[in-house]
TrEMBL record:
This is NAD-dependent epimerase. The keyword DNA-binding does not apply. It holds the Pfam family Epimerase. Keywords: NAD. CDD domains: UDP_GE_SDE_e. It comes from Flavobacterium orientale. Residues 3-265 form the NAD-dependent epimerase/dehydratase domain. The keyword Zinc does not apply.
Amino acid sequence: MTILVTGAAGFIGFHLTQQLLTKGFDVVGLDNLNDYYDPQLKYDRLGQLGIAQEDIKQNVTCGSFNYANFKFIACDLANRQVMEALFAKHHFDLVVNLAAQAGVRYSLEAPFQYIDSNVTGFLNILECCRHYKVKKLVYASSSSVYGLNDKVPFETTDAVDHPISLYAASKKANELMAHTYSHLFGIQTIGLRFFTVYGPWGRPDMAMFLFTDAILNNRPIKVFNEGNLSRDFTYIDDIVGGMLSIIETLKTDQWKPPYALYNIGNSKPVKLLDFIEAIEKTTGRTAQKEYLPMQPGDVAQTWADVSDLTRDFGYTPNTPISEGVEAFVSWYREYYNR
């Protein structure tokens, strides 16, 4: 199969691409390398995939010096002309759309970026799949679509009609758009509602990174809702393992439904203060905690019911928090020489 992975320089996209290449898939990676967080981290992820930073800046399709089966292009999903040319050239068998403007809180500051990337960009993906006969699409949704749902664990059959951030609304829009294109044009679509993914090479705006960075640099950490939060923290290897199972199944044409949504999480929520304690234990430092009220657009708890993903694709997350935190802290210390 030839697979397009959008957001290939992002956290999940990088890890998925690396595993796909190792398994011998032909992969074209795409990312706009924006400055929502330090682009150098994105360039360094691509470096692990054999893409030279100086080649990217020449604004051409780059070949990997580590993987003969990988090419990368710096491009924005909202650029319709470039996207159409990309699809016309490569004849993809499957698209994995992980590119998006991420972050709940940032959507309060830069709403147009969310519409450009998450709505217009996703429409370009759907239209390219339609016109260039790509019949299989896996795309990133988010646990944020559950909004203030107080029924736990969250199930994909729950109503998600009341998002509390523009980011969540954009992801709900993706699910509706995918359903429409599945119905009208026969594109098999699988939406994955990710639950608080963490691990090595993680995003600097996520709790795992923020807390570790602050603790190791003797700065206070911000603990929202006075610490009364819990999250379904999910280790990156478990996420990628689940996605690979889906892709392998799609490769064999054994999955028949035209449209589906799945939660992909750990299904074992952890209290925020327990998560911080695990980081303290691993780093050997005590966090300076600054307790703050709940942030706009945030929710008190997340908890994924993943039984349908387990039933259909054998998904089995099994990385304990202690092990995942240790792996992240080890990577952070090495990457930043701390």
